[in-house]
Amino acid sequence: MSKNGASDKTTQTQTRRFTVRRVLIVIGVLVIIVIICFVGYFVYSASHSLPANQKAFALATRHDQTQFTETSSYYLISPVRQTTTGIIIYPGAFTDPKAYVGQYSELAEMGTAVFVIKSPFNFALFEVNRADRIMSENTAITRWYTAGHSLGGVAACDFAKSHQAKLSGLILLASYCNGSAKNLTIPVLSISGTQDGLATPQKIEASKKDLPANTTFYVIGGANHTFFGSFARMQPGDNPATIDEQDARTQIINTTYLFMMPQ
Predict the structure, then answer these.
(1) CA-CA distance, 248 to 133, in Å (whole number)?
(2) Which of 226, 222, 230, 227 lies closest to 195 in space, CA to CA?
(3) pTM for this entry
(4) Looking at the DSSP assignment, which residues form a beta bridge with residue 231?
(5) Distance between CA atoms of 172 and 255, rounded to whole angstroms?
(6) Most buried residue, 17, 53, 73, 102, by most Cβ within 10 Å?
(7) CA distances from 189 to 67, 96, 171, 216 (A)
(8) 147: closest CA among 121, 186, 205, 94?
(9) Mean pLDDT in the chain?
(10) 174 and 196 Cβ atoms separated by less than 8 Å
(11) CA quadruple 124, 94, 233, 101: dihedral positive or negative?
């Protein structure tokens, strides 16, 4: 081979290596940009989470018939007397979990331990298996239910699908499952509102095909998406309610409580 031929081959090899290097650098930069955008989205959304009604939260934590506990991973409102029933609530995406303490503390007054999960960036899908750890830390409770509002319901359902042997039931609060949950053998309750602008009546209806045939559906006339937590303002994209908030809350609490009562 001539010196010129060898030189050309070397040049081509170096050019290919340089091109591959450039492609890898471009791909690496794009990956970094995507990661930064992804993290930035969650940081921004978490910092702008829908705020809780602080008055409702304060009242819930100072009730003389219940005890309030806060850990790094959940809030707990429990009855003063020992209970064997617990409900683990997954909050909606980018909402202050305190809103669910204020909303569901009445269940504790009725005798149920209420756990509200805290999640990184206030995004429940990052803590789907948190319920398993809560159960293992609270062995006195023998009847467990998972519940979730909005995207939190997706997390609660995902947990139920892989841990149903540990559960007595699943409660979907203005929510539905991601994919089929027809193989669930535990009782399932779906509570929704006719004025919901996010988990709309049409979406709830469409979700029925993914749930067990014996699922209980309870629809609150006039209730919207926001009424499933105790928030300081209406959720973006929601519709105005045509029912009193306290009336809707009473129906949500009573329906949930009756569902959890031993049959």
Answers:
(1) 32
(2) 222
(3) 0.84
(4) 52
(5) 12
(6) 102
(7) 27, 24, 5, 5
(8) 186
(9) 90
(10) yes
(11) positive
Token match 């995004």: residue? Answer: 123
Q: How far apart are CA 17 and CA 3, in angstroms?
A: 21
pLDDT reading at 3 higher than 70 = no
Is 144 within 8 Å of 133 (Cβ atoms)? no
d(CA 85, CA 10): 75
Q: How far apart are CA 224 and CA 243, in angstroms?
A: 9
Which tens digits make up the pLDDT trace of 150-190? 999 999 999 999 999 999 999 999 999 999 999 999 999 99
Taking the C-alpha atoms of residue 204 and residue 102, their distance in angstroms, rounded to an integer, is 25
Handedness of CA 42, 114, 167, 205 (dihedral sign): negative
Report pLDDT digits (tens) over 107-125. Answer: 999 999 999 999 999 999 9
Token representation of residue 64: 């003389």
Closest CA to 155 of 178, 188, 121: 178
Q: Which long-range contacts (CB under 8 A, 24 or more apart) does 259-263 make?
A: 259/169, 259/171, 259/187, 259/189, 259/216, 260/85, 260/87, 260/112, 260/143, 260/145, 260/168, 260/169, 262/143
Single-letter amino acid code for the residue at 67: Q
Residue 227 tokens read as 């009424």
Question: 18-27: per-residue pLDDT in tens?
Answer: 676 776 666 6
